[in-house]
Structure formats: C-alpha cells, structure tokens
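Worked example 2:
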Amino acid sequence: MTQDSTQRPVGLPMPPTMAPEVVIVGAGPVGLAAAVELGLRGVRCLLVERNDRVGYSPRAKTTNVRTREHLRRWGLADALRQASPIAPDRPSDVVFATRMNGYPLARFHNAMNGTRERNNLYSEEAQWVPQYILEEVLRKKAETLPGVEIRFRTEVTGVRQQPDGVTAYLRDIATGQESAVACAYLVGADGPRSGIRQAIGATMVGDGALPKNYSIIFRAPALAERQTHGGAIMYWMVNDDVPSMLGPMDEQGLWSFMATKVAGNADPATLDAVDLVRRGTGIADLDVEIVGTDLWTASRLIADRYSDGRVFLAGDSCHLHPPFGGFGMNMGIGDAVDLGWKLAACLEGWGGKDLLRSYELERRPVHERTIAEAMANFGAVTNHLVQPGIEDPGSVGDATRREVGEIILATKQREFKTLGIVLGQRYTGSPVIIPDGTEPPPEHFMLYVPSAHPGCLAPHLWLADGSSLYDHFGVGFTLLIAEGKIEQAGALRAAAQRRNIPLTLLPSPDARLHRRYEARFAIIRPDQHVAWRGDALPADCDRLWRYLTGSAPESGLP
C-alpha cells in the first residue's frame, strides 16, 4: 500500500465523481461501530473488509459497561442481549480452581459488573458474549442505515491524499476488479497489521514479543455437567501442568480455552489441542471436538501518531496490549465513538480544525493508562499463580491452596473490578474541553468516583420513571439544567442555532442532579463527556461554542 500526495498508483482508474464522505477500512467491531456512529448521524460511509468475517475466533468476550452504554445510545443494547448464546441467568462470576474437577481456590462475583442489577453508576451492565455475536448485531444495524455500504472481500491497495480529500484504491478479491473511491476522510480500523497505518507512515512503539499463548475453541457438551465449580463466565485453572483459562461460548457445549504457558519456540503443528484441554481441565476422558486453534503472541504497542491529514487510525491499528481485563475491543469502540461524532461535526460544517486534532490528544492518555493496567494484569496469569504442592491432598496442600486463594483475591480483583478504568476515562488537556479550576477525582483502577469535572464522563442516574438520565441526552450537545429555568438558556441556544450546532435543552428531571453535577449547568458532548460546567452561563455564548467545537481562533478560555 502506498500514500502519495501527487501521483496515483500506476494502473488504477481515476476516482469517480460520486463518493462516500468517509471510507472505513476494517469491518471488525471498531469499524462497524464507526459506521453505526457515523451512519446514525447521516454521514455516507463505505466500509470495506478484505475477509468475510465468518468463523473468527472470539478473542474478545467482554462487552463492558461503557460499550454497552454506546449500544444503548444506538438502540442495540437489547438486541445484543437477545442475540447472546449465553443464558441470561448464568452468574457473572470468575472461578479460580486447580482444575475443572479439582480444588476451588477463589471466586469473584459480579465480575466486570455483569450482573443485571441496576446501578446508578452506569446505564447498562457488562455482557459476556462472543465478539462475532457483537459484530453480527452491529453489522445488521449498519446495513439498515441508508448512507452505509459494506463491501466484504475488498482490500485497499493504495491511499492518496489531497488537501480537500482522500482517494482509496480498492480491489475486489474475488474478481480482481479495481476501483477508486474519493472521500473526505478515511478511517483505518484494520487491526494489528494495519495497511492504513503503513500508508501514513505511523510506527508502533513498545514491546511486540511478549510470551505466547495458545487459544483453542472446542466443543464438549459433557464439560458443563462434569465440572464441579458451578456456573460462571470464566474459569482459571491454576496448575503446573497446563495452566489455562476457559469460558463458555454458548450453553450447548462450545468453549474457549487458552493455555498461558507455551514455549517461545512452540510449533502449532506439534501442539495436541485435545490433550491440552483434557490436562488443563483435569478430565482425562473428556470427549473433545476441536473447532479452531490460534497460537499468538501478546504485545504492548502504541502508534507514534494516530493520523496524517485526513486519514485516522482507530482500535488495534494504533494500540495493542494483552487481553487481560477485557479492554482492547472496548477501547477501540471508544475510539470509533470519539472520532465518529467529530468527523460528522466537521462534515456538517460546525466542527473546527481543533476538533479532529483533539482525537489523539483525548484518546492517547486513555490508551496509555489502560495498556498499563492490562500489563499489570498480564503479570499475574495462571502460570504465575502456581505454587509447589497446590494440588497435593492433605493439610499442607490445603494450606497452600488457602495461601494462593488469598493472593488471587488480593491481586486479581483489579482485573475483574475495573469501573475506575472503564468509566474513569477523562479528557483533561483537550483543546475542546473547558476546565473549571477544580481538581479532578482521583484515578483508581477499581474505584470510580462519578464527577462532572470537565472532561469526565457525565455522571449517570436512574430516574424515578425508570429511564436512564442518558436516555434524555440529545444526539448532539446537551445543556443539562440541574437547577434553573430553561429560559436562562436562550442566548446559548440562539448561538448554537447560528452555528448549526445540534443542542438539546434538558431541564433537571431529578432534584439530585444539582448535587451530583456540583453546578447549575453542564454542557454534555455527543459522546456523553462533560465539555463545560458552571453556575452561570457565559456572557459570550458564541465564543463558548467556538471553543467547544474546535473553532476558536483566539487564545484563552471563554
């Protein structure tokens, strides 16, 4: 793939006169999320994917609370819940044991906040569901949006930028037919080996050679009955033989298994997947059908830049880390949301030059913090928790298991109790966030302190009528009037209308909001982050909007 600002690749046709506004490369969960976010905002998108996205291993299995809140905003939260092959009454627990028929060590209840009990901290619980199911739900939604077109088995062979747009050169893999598509912006959501990243000359920096892991998808209907630890979404097998993790993919006997102690020079051809599953679970005569295998290496990498001109990177194309904590796919979907509404704003004419510049400035600190957390989790996987004699019978074995159980409870809660990471994302230092001089809440992996400090996620609340506060936010900006009258917002609304900025006025639907937001007014962005708050609206509302939309030419805050 090449990028050339002056010449188009030899042999490829000239761009057509009609084109989508955004081309998205990669139809995984991040690319699909970008298509949905943009499509719902009326942006014409072409989503291209070189594969058919059928039969892929479900590496991502946790759709966390923040991603589920985006799904709720898109009208898809219930659709994913209904599409899940996992029973709704399966406990959202993580079990640690020596084997599936061995000694119990520890248990975490409500892991990842997946229990379906309402919590004022968030509007949607997490969900344990294979990634391919989430992709199907997102794809079906994208296909209903009139401005979205999806082309599978299509690869990008070249990218050329002009000052006012981008040309993507495409090839139909089945027919070999080549074409060129002009667009205003291009998003590379094409994964770890991103061709778009190469096209813009970005480089991944970090450690790409962490220990190997061996994932196995297998079918064993008898395992659920023969294991002795009850229902859970994940089981960690802590033994010195085949330390591993496994979890159900459906209720009919499909499982995902990952061996964490694999030799660095391991050859997939020499690995006996059936034997590994039987030894890891401890059930030597288990009837196992192998569905798929994948020998892979974890990485800790981040791109040195996320964009060049009108081309942007999202998801695994610009950040990679071990999967422990379930952050990767969810973080990529967060990228798609942040970038999506900003691209739409620029295409609609009310987004300024600093709005797209804020994408990397906001997301990179989130990525760096989350990657650090994933690496901390990676330092305590199953093979790191094993102690000599952990499977021995008798009092010495019991004492060893108690000690290991205590270590697990002390060290692994940061992997399964992660609201401080998932909801504690904040965009401090952003050029389109107006600070108010207050101190932000403390950062903690587990503890999430709801705060309307500018840049933080807007504090959530369940209202008396059973609705979520988020349900009342508009598709654009929302002025939450926690205390006061809607008439006070007349100048702010008029200034927004002059600039064609979508604005919803929301008088307080709950008396608790003033205390929760610690201000009479708060402006919420389309992605539900607080852009500004105060006890009085600024006198110069035009200047306020210029700042929040990235259009302020002058220095200094409103």
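Residues 520 and 535 are 5 Å apart (CA to CA). The longest strand covers residues 154-162.
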